[in-house]
Design goal:
The protein is α/β, with parallel strands linked by helices and 208 residues long. The chain has one domain (2-181): Flavodoxin domain (Rossmann fold, 3-Layer(aba) Sandwich). The protein has 5 helices and 6 strands; from the N terminus they run E-H-E-H-E-H-E-H-E-E-H. It has helices spanning 16-26, 54-65, 82-94, 114-126, 155-177; strands at residues 2-8, 32-37, 68-72, 101-106, 130-131, 137-138. Strands 1, 2, 3, 4, 5 and 6 form a 6-stranded parallel beta sheet that branches. Helix 3 (82-94) links the parallel strand 3 and strand 4. The longest helix has 23 residues, at 155-177. The chain is globular.
Amino acid sequence: MTRLLMISGSTAESSLQTSALRTAVRLAPPGVVAEVYDGLRHLPAFVPGEAAPAAALAVRERIAAADAVLFCTPEYAGSLPGSLKNLLDHVVAGGDLGGKPVAWLSVATPGQDESARVALETVLAHCNARLLHAACQRIPLMPHAVDGQGMVSDAQLHQALGDMLQTLTRILTQVQTSQAPSWQINSSLFPTLTREGDRPTFRPRRPF
């Protein structure tokens, strides 16, 4: 079973981003449990040096439990919404995205959220998250595509969202099955251990 956590960068319940993720939950393929994080509006401000509040610990636990995280965010004032950046500040402090597979979904037309996307990728890099570039997709939505219940109602868009989830799941499966073998150990203190046959050949440096 694959657990997918979806995070919208908008605090508006009727936003295109939240509506797209809410719809995607219903379109999750078999074997995938998807959920949308809905606590962004009530997340306390990150304060360096202070203990993480309960709401921050809760979202960090949900991220840690997920096999992958999908972000969908609008652009505010040429960058990420402050509420999403606040969440990421909490997560950076906890290190919960380290090595975690992540991707983004854009529902804006090209050129309307490029700064937010670049900022998101920059912060995710600081979190040491594993960005699945091939799973990042743009599915432009217009306001009329969302019904009164905050769901995407267009059948073609349903197909696009379903295809996006299938792609993300397939890539995630490939990532999980291509992990380093048990004989290979990576450490920040020691070099990578390799099998005898893989040992590199070192050539002495010529004297000047």
